[in-house]
Specification:
Layout: H1 2-31, H2 35-56, H3 65-85, H4 91-137, H5 140-163, H6 170-192, H7 199-219
């Protein structure tokens, strides 16, 4: 599930980048007198919107239904204008398509960040609860699995903070990276001493999850 979420987040960010790139290309095409170049830009932009429309139909897509419906409608509009007007469309149509791309790119990133925060908050809270329940059960296998799942979750968070663009303030991203490193180091300590678990250390990991989960939801 975590891998699926990360794939969708990465995919949405790539789409946002493409939308911005094609917005620039459309504005360049509006100024060009080269019909071949115009046709190439319009065709690539159309293919991108067809791909977006296809993705909106996926049941696994995490976006709210209203946003998916709106993106589907915009895709239909782009298709209709592109096919009916072609390279003979006026400059205003080129700029209109470019502005759609820019606005949706910004909205897409905002939606991704909002859904990411909600998903992270849920998994952090769930992972913290699993750690506590697994420890109380005295089931070592379950406890090791809970530690591993929590570790993977924090690795994903660190990756998102260091390798992808987010709208979070830099100091928050840096703090999350430090927390991820803290979780990693102390998960190893707990895993190496399963017969004598440091309860204070375990409580620390659980509380970190709870507090960051509440913080993510509070920001949204």
């Amino acid at each position: 599930m975590l891998d699926n979420i990360k794939e969708q987040i990465d995919g949405a960010r790539e789409e946002a980048e493409l939308l911005r790139e094609y917005a620039d290309s459309l504005e360049s095409a509006a100024k060009s007198e080269n019909d071949h170049y115009k046709l190439l830009v319009l065709d690539e932009n159309l293919k991108m919107w067809v791909a977006i429309e296809t993705e909106m139909r996926s049941k696994d897509n995490l976006m709210p239904q209203q946003i998916k419906d709106n993106l589907t409608k915009l895709s239909k509009y782009v298709e209709q204008v592109t096919i009916s007007k072609g390279v003979d469309m006026t400059d205003n149509y080129y700029r209109s398509l470019a502005e759609i791309n820019r606005q949706i790119s910004e909205g897409l990133m905002e939606s991704v960040n909002t859904n990411l925060a909600q998903q992270e908050a849920y998994f952090l809270a769930r992972s913290g609860l699993d750690l506590g329940e697994a420890y109380k059960s005295n089931d070592k296998n379950w406890f090791v699995e809970a530690l591993d799942n929590n570790q993977r979750l924090w690795i994903m968070i660190k990756t998102l903070m260091t390798k992808n663009k987010t709208r979070l303030p830099q100091n928050i991203k840096e703090n999350l990276v430090k927390l991820a490193d803290y979780v990693a180091a102390n998960t190893i300590k707990l895993g190496q001493n399963l017969d004598n678990i440091d309860e204070k250390l375990l409580d620390s990991l659980i509380n970190i999850n709870r507090q960051i989960s509440e913080g993510l939801l509070g920001r949204r």
